[in-house]
Specification:
By secondary structure, the chain is an alpha+beta fold. It has two domains: 1-126 and 234-284, 2-Layer Sandwich (Antithrombin, Chain I, domain 2); 134-232 and 313-341, Alpha-1-antitrypsin, domain 1 (Roll), CATH 2.30.39.10. Helices cover 22% and strands 38% of the residues. It has nine helices and 18 strands. The protein has helices at residues 2-5, 8-18, 23-27, 30-38, 60-70, 83-97, 199-208, 212-215, 241-246, and strands at residues 44-53, 57-58, 73-77, 115-128, 134-142, 146-154, 159-164, 167-173, 185-192, 221-222, 224-230, 232-239, 262-263, 274-286, 290-302, 315-318, 323-329, 335-341. β7 (159-164) and β8 form a beta hairpin. This is Serpin domain-containing protein. Residues 1-344 form the Serpin domain.
Amino acid sequence: MVSAGARGDTRRELLRFLGSAPLDELHRAPANELVGRLNGLAQTSFACGVWVDRRLALRPEFAATGASRYGATAESVDFVSGAEQARLRMNAFVADATKQLIHDLLPPGSVDSTTVVVLANALYFKGVWSHPFDVFTAPFHVPGDTTVGVPSMTTGRSQYIALYPGFRALKLPYKNDASWQADAFYMLILLPDSGTLSLADLYDKAVSMPEFIRKHMPVEEVPVGRFMVPKFKFTFGFEASSDMQKLGVTRAFSGGDFSGMVSIGVNDEHGRVSISRVYHKATIEVDEQGTVAAAATVILLDGAALEESEPPHLVDFVADRPFLFAVVEERTGAVLFLGHVVNPLAG
């Protein structure tokens, strides 16, 4: 949504960062097309909000794009005399949108009198496995030659497993509550083979190659031998502006052109506001029944393929070492959540 309000080199940098060329291509991306359906699905909800200082006005085209494509609600606030009240209101918006899983995303002092626009989006997901798992305690090997006992899921049922050079993939489908629902979700777990592909290398492939997740989705159920996936729960948050600048987004943080978002005034036709901070927080819990996850991002703007191998008759999938996971919508291939587990007990 920020890209829709940017112009010139600022927009080009943001689109390059997002892996899209024209803005229309970004709007047609599977993840953005899915956004419009999330609130109509049993497992998901999505919320998007824009807060603009009362001294300014959102461009009508930007407000229309936000409302039509992202369901964004816009609100005028007083950042000069009511910055703290605005911060609390935005944090409440995120907490409500994530069913109270994410609190206090914006820390004290993050919103002040220099803030002119704040954009936020929040995603909630709750999926139940098509078939629940049994639970037992199993060893898990964490970095540093340490082994810990962790509550883990197991089953004797056939599973969607595929073997690839250096790693193996497991697809765990979630149950669809309605038979008419076209959108189906699943968790994909990518497990590096011991002593071959590293977790970092596998993660780089997943984030740098748009089709990597889709191309490595198992399509056939196979009988399982040993099967183990640990239960895990963690919350992770960070401020992303420095990482974004290292990846080439610089103009948006210094003298950016957001004239497509707000009108500053007759003497400043270029809308010279800049992104000051980007806060992101995610939480996920995976157990024998299913998955509950949420993620939220708030942006503050201030003024001034590999071939699949044929699996053997019985296939083991023992996630007893660090692995990569993703929650994916099957029809579009849109990734809702992506992360990795190094120690299931380090929540």
